Amino acid sequence: MYSTSKIKTAVDGLIGWHQNLDPEGYQLTDLTTSSSGLWFNSVHPALTIDNLISIATDFRLFTFSTWLIGTTYALDAKVTLNGVNYISLQAANTGNDPEAPASAFWSEYIPFTEWLEQRTDEAILECIAEWFSMKSELFTANNLVERKKLFQVTGDLSKSIVSDNAFVGFELLPSAMRSLCVTVVKAGFQFEGANNFKLKLFSSKQLNQKQTLDVAYAGTNGAGSLEWFDVNWQLNSFEDDEDDSGAAWYIGYDQADLTNDAVNGIFDKHYGANGSQAFPSGRYYGATAFSVANAQYTPNQLWALNQMDYTVDTNYGMNLVLKVQCDYTQFIIEQIDLFKDAFRLKVGIKLLEEIANNASARSNRHERNFTKDSLTYDLQGDNRARHDNSLIGKYKKEMKAIEFDRTNIESICLPCKRRGIRHKTIGVTS
């Protein structure tokens, strides 16, 4: 797996688009910087702003509500004034004229830039996906390393937990491996009756809460029954990629929000277990129940960590399904410069194909200089030729040339055949 949003952020500004030379035409409001010195337009002469405009939506038809001096506008709100569209740069934006020079409140809104950015991002992510497919040995390792419930016991519905009005839950410590990512897939709860509350997630690196989920426990199958809720919260081993210290994560709820007490789900009552307590452990994470007294907890903010009380005697009525996956995001980002030529060609190829097909059927300047057949030839080349000098051929060569430095990837996420060992999924599937 890899994070497309983080990769898009890393690629931003690596390769750019040359600005429209026509001062009366659409002007790009972004995408015009290139740290690598490479430009998408240089892939082919047909990749001019005018030709790209011709295959885009006709943005001249876009209009928004007229700007009014007394109206309060939200961040990213769009308005029209004297035939020009603007986008709000701030929240609670009132009485600020969009036409004011060097305005800190409004910027001219040109949808063409968004359209081009979307096409560019799509092609870049497609390039990454194709590279992974070509380097198929990366997939001989398990992408899903582990998936399991924290508690897999029969339980005892008679064991209730009297509320102390504390914030309670689990401290989760993902293994400090840069190529592994732990995700909370589901959260399960057992209560003596219906409860409505918020499940919250905190990181030891941030004061404010990271995530919240509204939970409505109904006890549909009777008091104490286990009900599951989809969560899908990622717990990265390295919350800040520049800081190798890692992060501890805290997931839980405020007992003060409960109407009915929780059921303690750590007691195993099946035959032979004799009522023993079972607390979870995992190879790639640690989990410990904790509580923070009401006086030490400010809603929605992380508490002083030295004020936590740990326990292995209760799970506060909570259970989690966790999965551990191999995450190659950081390794791609660290070597993103290797992809720049492939990115440039892929974006150019995708847009030239669109120009050749001219999906919008609007007349464009390239029709006077290029034909569909000539563009198709530049893209695909002549299959009878000895050497493939087509754009697609050059792209394939660039892709083959990219070699991934896997020095810092943990062995569990490397191809088994290269390490002489075998791996299998650990745990059970819920």
Notable characteristics:
430 residues, alpha+beta, six-stranded antiparallel β-sheet, four-stranded antiparallel β-sheet, 23% strand, globular, disordered C terminus
Structure in words:
This protein has helices at residues 4-11, 49-55, 111-134, 329-334, 340-357, 372-380, 391-401, 416-419; strands at 72-73, 78-81, 84-88, 93-94, 106-108, 144-149, 160-161, 167-174, 180-189, 195-203, 211-217, 227-236, 249-254, 262-263, 267-268, 276-277, 285-292, 308-311, 318-326. With 430 residues, the chain is an alpha+beta fold. The chain has two domains: 4-136 and 356-401, no CATH class; 151-314. The strands form six sheets. Strands 11-10-13-8-17-18 form a six-stranded antiparallel beta sheet, with no helix packed on it. It has a four-stranded antiparallel beta sheet with strand order 6-19-9-12, with no helix packed on it. The chain has a three-stranded antiparallel beta sheet with strand order 2-3-5, with no helix packed on it. α3 packs across α5 (340-357) and α5 runs antiparallel to α6 (372-380). The two termini are 21 Å apart.
